[in-house]
């Protein structure tokens, strides 16, 4: 498991103008840390360090050791604001992690055994993903970096639902607690559209021959 750490400085110069100056003059990213029994704290992070951490998928669902002026806190990345046209991070939100208190986090899905999927190998089907991540609830110590979706035994026209996912111990999907209507599809194996299209001209030819 990868360990993530970030360095930050507390900031008192607030407002949109101050944030623009941070990004432009110091190559820093304005951010906020909130949650727990402490007041929200405005901080600034080095843009280069944050961008490098964001290159790793696990960073988005991992407990991060954040050092603010030398004082360390465990946090989770909760929100990220990017510039709509430029590769610039505008703002970041971090949630304090409190030991013994459950957290709700979006965790990426890793689809495995797609090459050996029975619906693909035997029936020529195609796999479609309807989700790339799932919201889970757990204690910080049980937080998984990802959840695997095993496609090996999925047949043609079969759907993998949220309830089919094998979750690590201590991890739950809060959406499922809302009832059967919330057991959403994660992936499915369907017939290839190319094959369906190839059948159409043949059918038309038969009709014209008649």
Question: Could you describe the 3D structure shown?
Answer:
- This protein has 210 residues and is of the alpha+beta class.
- It contains 4 helices and 12 strands.
- The protein has 2 domains: 95 residues, Beta Barrel (Ribosomal Protein L25, Chain P), CATH 2.40.240; 93 residues, RNA Polymerase Alpha Subunit, Chain A, domain 2, CATH 2.170.120.20.
- The strands form 3 sheets. A 6-stranded mixed beta barrel has the order 1-3-2-6-5-4. Strands 9-7-10 form a 3-stranded mixed sheet, with no helix packed on it. Strands 8-12-11 form a 3-stranded antiparallel sheet, with no helix packed on it.
- The model has no long low-confidence stretch (mean pLDDT 88).
- One of its GO terms (cellular component) is cytosolic large ribosomal subunit.
- One of its GO terms (biological process) is translation.
């Amino acid at each position: 498991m990868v360990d993530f750490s970030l360095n930050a400085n507390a900031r008192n110069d607030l407002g949109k103008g101050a944030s623009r100056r941070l990004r432009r003059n110091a190559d820093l990213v304005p951010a906020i840390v909130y949650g727990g029994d402490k007041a929200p704290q405005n901080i600034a992070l080095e843009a280069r360090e944050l961008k490098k951490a964001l290159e790793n998928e696990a960073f988005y669902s991992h407990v991060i050791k954040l050092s603010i002026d030398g004082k360390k806190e465990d946090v989770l990345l909760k929100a990220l604001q990017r510039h709509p046209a430029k590769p610039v991070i505008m703002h970041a939100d971090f949630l304090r992690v409190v030991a013994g208190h459950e957290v709700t986090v979006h965790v990426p899905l890793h689809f495995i055994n797609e090459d050996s999927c029975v619906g693909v190998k035997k029936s020529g089907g195609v796999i479609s993903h309807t989700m790339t991540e799932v919201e889970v609830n757990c204690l910080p110590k049980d937080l998984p970096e990802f959840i695997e979706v095993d496609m090996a035994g999925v047949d043609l026209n079969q759907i993998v639902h949220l309830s089919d996912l094998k979750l690590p111990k201590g991890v739950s999907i809060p959406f499922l607690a809302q009832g059967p209507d919330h057991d959403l599809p994660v992936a499915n194996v369907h017939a290839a559209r190319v094959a369906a299209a190839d059948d159409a001209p043949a059918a038309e030819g038969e009709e014209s021959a008649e």
